[in-house]
Design a protein that fits this description.
The structure is a homodimer of 344-residue chains.
Chain A: H1 14-21, H2 25-32, H3 41-54, H4 60-67, E1 72-77, H5 83-99, E2 102-107, H6 112-122, E3 129-132, H7 138-142, H8 145-154, E4 158-162, E5 170-172, H9 176-189, E6 194-200, H10 205-221, E7 225-232, H11 236-242, E8 256-259, H12 262-274, E9 284-286, H13 293-296, E10 303-305, H14 308-320, E11 334-336
Parallel strand pairs in A: 1-2, 1-3, 3-4, 4-5, 6-7, 6-8, 8-9
Antiparallel strand pairs in A: 10-11
Chain A binds a DNA duplex (16 and 16 nucleotides) through residues 13-15, 23-27, 29-30, 33-34, 38-40, 43, 58-59, 61-68.
Chain lengths: 344, 344
DNA sequence: TTGTAAGCGTTATCAG
DNA sequence: CTGATAACGCTTACAA
């Protein structure tokens, strides 16, 4: 049995392929990796045959040093185990695969300091683009986010953010405010008058937009009242804990709790149950994002659908597409009413 | 205002730093990236100052070509939006961060052909390691998985698999069989006699182990009966759909459905509800993995806890650690009883 | 169309 | 301890 492609000790280099097929390095490179097809057919075949035989795979790092930029897109998320970011990552990965790009992920753990540090480190990859899906805060800016992003862009990489524009970088937007407003008025129309809002810290754009949108829809348009705004984080635990800040005994049935995200809403639902209150007829709950769990929980969670996977895909497109409509309308969102907010 | 680190046009190179600080390239390299500290303190300072001033960040690709291997670990999962893989990825990312490695992800979409193709492509990164968290099947082997893995290892990268050993590569194991057995006998002890199993295709190791383990615990140890084994996939939709294969009208209350994974179990619970059956007192459901949703659903989902995050971390360790105990016992799993399987 | 050779940014060997 | 200088694997003018 002749030596199989896989029996060789070290990985085959382009040099090996060139020698094996009796052509120059340049020709081999042109056949295997270059774009323009300007090589004689007979040569092409020989090179491909040799590459196949040797099990050649281009060394991406070497290619990157030679070209000056790597076929990489770096993705920054707060927490990859969170379904919100998981879905986004899935969309990004799908797009990257189609475009022949490698995705590298970094986790901010929701720490602004850490985020800036990571961005700086990511620069070392000289990626084609940097996708910021993690929520950005003012603290974040203070830590030097902006200038770090600038040096990134100066290096030729495209910086793309999700949810909020930053500098003159590209951004994939969706209309948190309008979605929340629509949700607020829809719930007011269903008979709710009294609401409590569980938001995130002030200064977090997504949270601020959703809260003010909800306020517009529920109070301004719908004539309801928001009795309290509690501040927490975008996590299930935070949602669960925030309920303990409510005087649950005094909370009249028919009260609506609007949570800044589904993950938080799910935590709230659990906490209500554990505290002996019912979800739906008793205390109504609504969230935002439409993560899978909201469909599987009973009653189902009323929410605003954000097409996370699609947005992830668009983020990737924003990195690679030549033209980009900076003034594109934010993606409109769709309200989804489920059992957690029954008609009153 | 003097020029800030970020105002420069192109990224600063080591060359720039060396020139700026008046030392040789070699010295600058030693100070900034090399390991052994053998440089005079006065030089160190000057180099660091220059690097800081220029906003220098090592070009990882160049470093990789020079060193012959990249500070990368490649992670292969079936679907990053699936909480199972999301948790694993989180653990991997955490470990990688500590070790100063970059994580790159690739998605198999549960397609064996695609998986093998991806592995081949991943080789181009010359990563330090390849982590396979996606379920492997026989089809997979047929597509040439094994030889592809060999060429990977031949290149010096460490191949690590989750859940099942493959060749003489390192593997992080957990005891699916024992966990399922314990679950089976625990449920039998709670009074269940009749079960239906919703598994994955035969040949998928994880599924086979869980099914036979459950069989041992529920039938052999507990004296129960398994009336039917339905084959599907590891997805919520598959779980939902599989219920339609059941003659629900004939299904007596008190029947137990054991699903191959929580994701599948969640789908089953939804389907039961939609079909007008209750979960818990009526039809009991148990899953496997202990994903977050299982805690938030009502009744809570009985399951076997798999410490996914920790396993992900261990996978990363398996890539970088010098010593490795190949004969290590599989990680034992813990049964978690919740409301979906009340005592009868 | 093909080959030669000069880079790309680092590392690492080997003299000083 | 420091500094030339030759790799590393690949791309890409520039020649032939």
């Amino acid at each position: 049995m002749s030596d199989s492609p896989t029996s060789s000790r070290a990985a085959a280099t382009l040099h090996d392929v060139a020698r094996e097929s009796g052509v120059s390095l340049a020709t081999a490179s042109r056949v295997l990796n270059g774009s323009q097809r300007v090589v004689a057919e007979s040569y092409r075949e020989r090179v491909h045959a040799a590459a196949e035989k040797l099990g050649y795979t281009a060394n991406l790092s070497a290619q990157a040093t030679a070209r000056g930029t790597a076929a990489i897109v770096a993705l920054l998320v707060a927490d990859i185990a969170d379904p919100y970011f998981g879905q986004i990552a899935a969309g990004v990965a799908r797009g990257a695969d189609e475009a022949g790009l490698v995705v590298t992920i970094a986790i901010t753990e929701r720490d602004p300091q850490r985020e800036v540090r990571l961005i700086r480190a990511l620069r070392g990859q000289r990626p084609r683009g940097l996708i910021l899906a993690a929520s950005r805060t003012e603290t974040n800016e203070a830590a030097g986010l902006h200038s770090e992003l600038e040096s990134f862009a100066a290096g030729g990489a495209r910086v793309v953010t999700l949810g909020s524009a930053s500098g003159d970088h590209r951004a994939v937007l969706f209309d948190n405010r309008a979605g929340a407003r629509e949700l607020g008025s829809a719930l007011a129309a269903r008979g709710y008058r009294d609401a409590i809002v569980i938001g995130a810290a002030q200064g977090i754009r997504t949270s601020d937009d959703r809260i003010s949108g909800f306020n517009e829809g529920f109070v301004d348009d719908g004539g309801g009242n928001i009795h309290q705004v509690i501040r927490g984080e975008f996590t299930r635990e935070s949602g669960y804990d925030s309920v303990s800040q409510l005087l649950l005994g005094d909370l009249p049935a028919g009260t609506l709790i609007f949570a800044i995200s589904d993950v938080v809403a799910i935590g709230i639902m659990s906490a209500l149950r554990d505290a002996g209150r019912g979800v739906g007829e008793d205390i109504a709950v609504a969230g935002f994002d439409d993560i899978a769990t909201g469909r599987d929980v009973r009653p189902g969670l009323t929410t605003v659908r954000v097409p996370l996977d699609e947005l992830g895909y668009r983020l990737l497109c924003a990195v690679i597409d030549d033209e980009w409509d900076a003034a594109a309308e934010p993606k409109p969102l769709e309200v989804i009413i489920r059992g957690s907010t029954p008609e009153r």
